[in-house]
Amino acid sequence: MDMYRQPGFTLIEMIIVIVLIGVIAVIAFPRFVDFSSTARTNSTANVAAALSTANSNNFATRTASGGTTGITITNCNQNGALLPGGALPAGYSITSLSISNGVSVTCTLNGPNSTSATFMAYGIS
Fold this sequence. Notes:
The protein is α+β, with helices and mostly antiparallel strands. Helices cover about 45% and strands about 15% of the residues. It has one helix at about 10-65; strands at about 95, 105-110, 115-120.
C-alpha cells in the first residue's frame, strides 16, 4: 500500500455526483410542483361528486317520504345545504341555475384557484 495515498473521493468524482443530483432535481421539481394544481383540481372534483351523491340521496328520500323529509331543491346553489355541516367548504361556490321539479340539470361547482367541476342535480319541491 502506498503510504502517500489517502482514502476518499477525488474532486472529479464529487463534481460528477453534484451534477447528477442537479440533473435529477431539475427533472423531478416540475413534477412535484404540478402535484399541487392536480390536488386542487381533484379536490374540486371530489366536492362535486359529494354534491351529486347528496342530491341523489335527498331526491330519493324526499320522493319516498312524499315530501315530508329532505330539502326542497329549486336551484343548483341550494345543494350546498345537503353536505355534512349544511354548507360548502370554504372557497367553493355553486353557479346559480334554476331546476324544475323532477328535472335533472348539470350544475357547476367553482373551487379554489379557478378550478371547476360539474355535478348532476335533481329538482324536487
